[in-house]
Amino acid sequence: xxxxxxxxxxxxxxxxxxxxxxxxxxxxxxxxxxxxxxxxxxxxxxxxxxxxxxxxxxxxxxxxxxxxxxxxxxxxxxxxxxxxxxxxxxxxxxxxxxxxxxxxxxxxxxxxxxxxxxxxxxxxxxxxxxxxxxxx
Length: 136
Ligand SMILES: [Zn+2]
Known about the structure:
By secondary structure, the chain is of the alpha+beta class. It is built from six helices and five strands. Strands 2-1-3 form a three-stranded antiparallel beta sheet.
């Protein structure tokens, strides 16, 4: 699409220039550009990405289930000499739940994670911010 000069109406064949004529900024051809004051059209200032909304160390860290939970649960259970069935009975879940957790097919929710932590004397919760460098 051809650009036309906003002053003389002729087609602008070269790079259009913007000039200020009587306070109005017009896109003009090269010959008309001499009639006004050249202006540099600034691109709209882009705001950078918003600064991190949650500064580290201020809010209570969000806890998530340790990605290593499968090994932690299995090792702790075996250390206690418990079968999956026995552990399941202790914490009142089906042995299949323990099996799923240990195989990684089921990620324990916070309640189950805390229960397992209590009975297995292990830590299954880590601060979400500690995992960020690996997760991103
Ligand atoms: Zn012109």
